[in-house]
Design goal:
Length: 349
């Protein structure tokens, strides 16, 4: 039997996944989503037995991206109009070779756009967990200014410093970026959090730093077939299940009235498919491998960039500071715990 805290954590993940699927399978998006999922699954399974063709998947991805841009400001339900436009554009790109050849170089470059979007999503997901019941429980009883699990995070930062030093002769770029980021985090954990009496924001950065370490480790294996497959699988799953919910949340919070969130989701699906086709191609020895390998370095830089920008906003914007440090209201937590305890009490009888 899972504890109340565990169930709240599972509920948070379930709400993200189910919420994202609700968006992806909504009336205006389910046609594109199901085809995109089928293409990605078919290409992946075929790659285990033979060398698949990526033409249809790439054309479908580009058609999604272009269609989403054309209808970006469309607030009305133009389902059939959009579907007709999508079909016509798909046939043009597929049948007119110069058009397809002209778009093909952008498939490699789309890897970087996909990585930035994914890195940003991870940051948002960590912050959203902190603002959930699970985040409240995590900080319950913790004094202000002391980061949760501070000894553990300090140990991780110091151990990573040694790891970056070992990479100095192999990868100077990652060494410089990693050491600089690690020293910054050590300062944030032991000085900034105590000085500013704020442990929520720094804890978010600590968890995001662990994601940075993962990117560094993944960058050492992404050039291999298995590394490319693993990288592709993780990114594709994250984007498919989380992006729809996160994009909708972003658009709603930023109050961008001129942009249709559904078309942002279509744009993101197109990026996911392009990333998928490129990564599978690299795993099989095709494509411009160096561009794909550089994605991990770019992703590491993205994480540092997002961390620095969020830190600057934390200093400059009171609204952003409140957004990053807000925890659930005590009455909401108490009601959740109370009703959860009552259910357990009656179950035990």
């Amino acid at each position: 039997m899972a504890s109340l805290v565990e169930r709240n954590f599972y509920s948070y993940l379930r709400n993200i996944i189910v919420g994202g699927l609700d968006v992806l399978l909504s009336k205006n998006l389910r046609t594109y989503t199901l085809i995109a999922f089928f293409l990605a699954l078919t290409t992946t399974m075929t790659a285990f037995f033979s060398r698949p063709s990526f033409d249809i998947e790439i054309v479908f991805a580009f058609t999604l991206i272009i269609t989403s841009i054309v209808f970006i400001k469309s607030k009305k339900d133009y389902f059939w109009t959009k579907l007709f436009y999508f079909t016509a554009l798909f046939l043009i790109i597929k049948s007119v070779q110069p058009v397809y050849a002209g778009l093909l170089p952008f498939a490699q470059l789309s890897v970087y756009a996909t990585r930035f979007l994914t890195d940003l999503i991870f940051f948002v997901l960590i912050r959203d967990f902190m603002s959930s019941i699970g985040g409240f429980v995590l900080f319950f009883g913790e004094e202000k200014g002391r980061v949760v699990f501070r000894p553990v995070f300090n140990l991780i930062v110091l151990a990573s410093l040694a790891g970056y030093y070992c990479l100095a002769s192999i990868d100077p770029y990652t060494t410089f970026l990693g050491i600089t980021f690690a020293l910054f985090m050590f300062y944030m954990i032991n000085v900034f959090a105590k000085k500013e009496k704020n442990n929520v924001f720094v804890t978010i950065l600590c968890m995001y730093y662990i994601y940075f370490i993962y990117q560094v480790i993944a960058g050492l294996t992404v050039s291999t077939m298995m590394g490319a497959f693993v990288s592709d699988l993780l990114i594709t799953l994250v984007m498919f299940f989380f992006i729809a919910k996160t994009v909708g949340t972003f658009i709603g919070r930023m109050k961008i009235k001129r942009i249709n969130p559904e078309n942002i989701v279509l744009f993101s699906l197109g990026l996911v498919l392009l990333f998928h086709s490129v990564s599978i191609g690299v795993a099989l020895g095709g494509g411009v491998q160096i561009l794909f390998e550089l994605q991990q370095k770019v992703s590491s830089a993205n994480i540092v960039f997002i961390t620095v920008v969020s830190s600057l906003f934390f200093f400059k914007s009171e609204r952003f500071r409140e957004f990053m440090t807000s925890l659930p209201k005590k009455r909401d937590v108490l009601s959740t715990v109370f009703f959860g305890a009552m259910r357990e009490l009656f179950k035990s009888k």
